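Appendix B. Extra example for self-study. Work through it before the problem class; the solution is given directly after the inputs so you can check yourself.
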Amino acid sequence: MNRLEALRNAVGELLDKVEGVIALRNKSGHVAPHLFREREELNGLGLSPKYPLPATLRLIQNEYPEAKLGIVCRGCEERGLIEMAKRNQVELGNVTVIGLACTADEAEECRCAKPYPSVLVDAHVGERTEPVPDRVAEELRQKEVAERLSFWRSQFDKCIKCYACRNACPQCFCPECTLEEELWVERGRVPPPFPSFHLIRAMHTAGKCVGCRECELSCPAHIPMTALYALIRQEMGEMFGYEPGVDLEDQPPLVLPMEVEI
Amino acid sequence: MYEPKIIAYACTYCSYPGADLAGTSRIKYSPNVNIIRVLCSGRVSAELILRTFREGADGVLVLGCHFGDCHFINGNHRTAKRVPILQRILEFSGIEPERLRLEWISASEGERFAHVVDEFTDTVQQLPPMRQVLG
Ligand code: SF4
Ligand code: SF4
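Solution. Structure tokens for the complete assembly:
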């Protein structure tokens, strides 16, 4: 049985127990998020390319907080859900998760550190594949500071300030965004001056970024921004022992006071 | 050797009076520093620091109360976590992290204020001017 059929079966079974299952549906040659409610709809079930479904769950729960729902989650989406739940963006009590493991090719495309879900999952689809190291981030770590500057200047200079990175990010849910504040990111200046937009975004995703790469995959300028975020994630792991998206109970360090003896 | 421009954000409850004490005690310190008073070191956001660099500061000092002395109880705890993260972001994006420093200075530490400012000025002077870096 291939992955799509297995997923179709899993969603079909879950439909008996919940009011709807959030998954992807094929539509005019693309996929789009869809709330499946009837088994008959399952012919249209889609798999890829991936799309951040937790953001769709958040939208639906805003309107229907009591609804019993299912959701299909890849590894990155599960990590995203965990961080969103900690910040009260989704409520997991009424949610059943169908885990979908990514193929080796998909994991490669995303340089994914954990291409399968394992924490919130009630049903598994697909075979686990190996994590893929982030080579772009590792190369960057080896460079001298001046080399990094020329690397990022040439990358960030390509930015057309379309905000696709922010809009695609499941962790970017603030109703007001600092990236639209005239004081920090002036309107009408493209590319945004350095250092502003990109480093502010790195700061604001620190401790939240789960390395799903939605931002990078949506960027029309192909800026490998998640390499910067990956390095920050590693550093924060060392500084605060915190890894986003791993554990529902771990509290994000930036919202807590320091543990100090006074 | 160039004269670096240094901006020090000093909290109004501890570090600013500390700087004041350095002045009233006639302690000499580097004239490269420009002090900006803020309500709390926790108010100094990453956005503010980045904009300060963008406006041509060669170094940014963030000065706050020692742990336990913060007027807002744990405003300085936020600073203590935020600054090291921003230092890493600077480092990985190609700006020397030494350009940003966090120090705790109480209202009675005028000498320490002068010492921190002098030492920081020396450190920043070893680095190329920010205007040159940002081109
Ligand atoms: S998606 Fe890419 S081009 Fe668009 S604002 Fe983000 S970094 Fe810039
Ligand atoms: S990889 Fe990009 S889209 Fe995903 S959580 Fe991190 S910043 Fe957001």
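Self-check: The two ends of chain A are 61 Å apart (CA to CA). If your reasoning did not lead you there, revisit section 3.
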